DNA sequence: CTGAATCCTTGACGATACTG
DNA sequence: CAGTATCGTCAAGGATTCAG
């Protein structure tokens, strides 16, 4: 979460939004969990090129941002399940807008 | 511009959109130019903490993304003016959505 | 199974000096 | 005025190994 530095106040909210979705993996993890609750191993198999370290780290960030919920079940071997929160679901409308503009942007930049 | 790697096709457009706005400066430059055409020096004065190198680099990226237009006038000393393109203006509705969600996000993450 | 610890590479970003 | 060139720093992300 950013604090005031160079930015006018309203820019901070935009930057926070971008930051919450930035990086190579957050989007993929979010979409994977949107399709249903998953365990650590399941996610890493779906996103085959992610390392355990990155998956672990990104999940923590997403959890700290209240986009993802982590549930631990006391079994052996340990069972941990990840799911999308209500707040996590609310990003979908943002992604829609980004998708629409992104398509337009690709047309604009590539071949008109 | 990304090509297909791990990502499902629709994710690429979203990533391109995020990429076009990412980084410490792009948003500030875009907003500055939205308020009116500016010359290099004017922008760097408005965004006082940016270095010439970064401003130059970011402007090139924004120009290559068709978000900003660079106009050179053959005077001495040289005059270069930057302006927002139509495509650049189209990001405003994206920023609106990001702002709305960003505000909600801040409430969610900080003190509900 | 679900991670944490360590080491390494790469690119973003900054400071400063210089040029047409 | 409008940049470029050079050097340096730091954190993101990756590869690999270790642990409860």
From TrEMBL, chains A, B:
<keyword id="KW-0804">Transcription</keyword>
<feature type="domain" description="HTH hxlR-type">
    <location>
        <begin position="7"/>
        <end position="110"/>
    </location>
</feature>
<dbReference type="GO" id="GO:0003677">
    <property type="term" value="F:DNA binding"/>
</dbReference>
<dbReference type="InterPro" id="IPR036390">
    <property type="entry name" value="WH_DNA-bd_sf"/>
</dbReference>
<dbReference type="Pfam" id="PF01638">
    <property type="entry name" value="HxlR"/>
</dbReference>
<keyword id="KW-0805">Transcription regulation</keyword>
<dbReference type="InterPro" id="IPR036388">
    <property type="entry name" value="WH-like_DNA-bd_sf"/>
</dbReference>
<dbReference type="InterPro" id="IPR002577">
    <property type="entry name" value="HTH_HxlR"/>
</dbReference>
<keyword id="KW-0238">DNA-binding</keyword>
<protein>
    <submittedName>
        <fullName>Transcriptional regulator</fullName>
    </submittedName>
</protein>
């Amino acid at each position: 979460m950013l604090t005031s530095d160079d930015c006018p106040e309203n820019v901070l909210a935009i930057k926070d939004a971008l930051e919450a979705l930035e990086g190579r993996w957050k989007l993929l993890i979010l979409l994977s969990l949107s399709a249903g609750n998953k365990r650590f191993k399941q996610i890493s198999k779906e996103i085959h090129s992610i390392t355990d370290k990155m998956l672990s780290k990104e999940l923590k960030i997403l959890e700290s941002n209240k986009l993802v919920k982590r549930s631990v079940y006391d079994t052996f071997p340990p069972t941990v399940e990840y799911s999308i929160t209500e707040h996590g679901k609310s990003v979908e409308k943002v992604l829609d807008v980004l998708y629409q503009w992104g398509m337009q942007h690709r047309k604009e930049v590539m071949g008109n």
